[in-house]
């Protein structure tokens, strides 16, 4: 049916990272969604980890860009080039059928752009699956059962919240408040409080090491030493950053995520809401690893909250698992 050695693949095309799942093999690639290009010739110089190393360190003629923004394609040609690189790296020159996840709030035009980019990159055919549904499958939730499940997928660009029952999304909310917004909030806070300029990579390190969703619990976390550029002298400078300050800086984003969860619960039928209270809310995505986040959400919603077993991999695993239903999707297109 396919070329020799060709395997269908599922792609978690994220704002921050791209994961590729291959039928029969599981996750075979995990790289940052970054492309380094020559600004004069338009030539792609590096993709993935190699390109990420160049962020903030490139000469004038080279620019390292993230072609995905807020979970959707911001730079079409670069996204297609990135997909082509990842597909060839995992699948050689064969033309696989590809399943790609998209945030639940995307328009038909944005879905079409993802499918077209995959075709340009060498896919034989491409289908899309909504991110929270893929996350729920990957987290092992009973998505086909007549029982309600709730998943909150906090990625780099979007947070997708959905209740799921009988193989479909019952209610969902997608907001462009997620990992990147945590980083921006940290950068802005350090800038305004300390007159210090830090880059995205430093902000990401701060978030991972001392970031906390709870200001109260942050008091128990030790301070962290960071380096940046002093905006007064223009020279490099080191400072100590307190975890409480970081927790305060990201509080607005945490609250926006909680509001999205509450709104999704309010749109849900009483029966499914009762199931969610029984089974709890499952967190997936990199943002699920923010310290004390489950406790803060549980306190605000009065519903138990759990982190999925492999939060970073759930969407990719679910996207790959959904390849089993590719025949159904083919028929629904006709």
TrEMBL record:
Locations listed in the record: Cytoplasm
Binding residue positions for ATP: 15-17, 156-158, 204-207, 286-289
InterPro entries: ATPase_NBD, MreB, MreB_MamK-like
GO molecular function: ATP binding
Keyword set includes Cytoplasm: yes
Function: Forms membrane-associated dynamic filaments that are essential for cell shape determination. Acts by regulating cell wall synthesis and cell elongation, and thus cell shape. A feedback loop between cell geometry and MreB localization may maintain elongated cell shape by targeting cell wall growth to regions of negative cell wall curvature.
Family: Belongs to the FtsA/MreB family.
Protein name per UniProt: Cell shape-determining protein MreB
Source species: Lactobacillus corticis
Gene for this chain: mreB_1
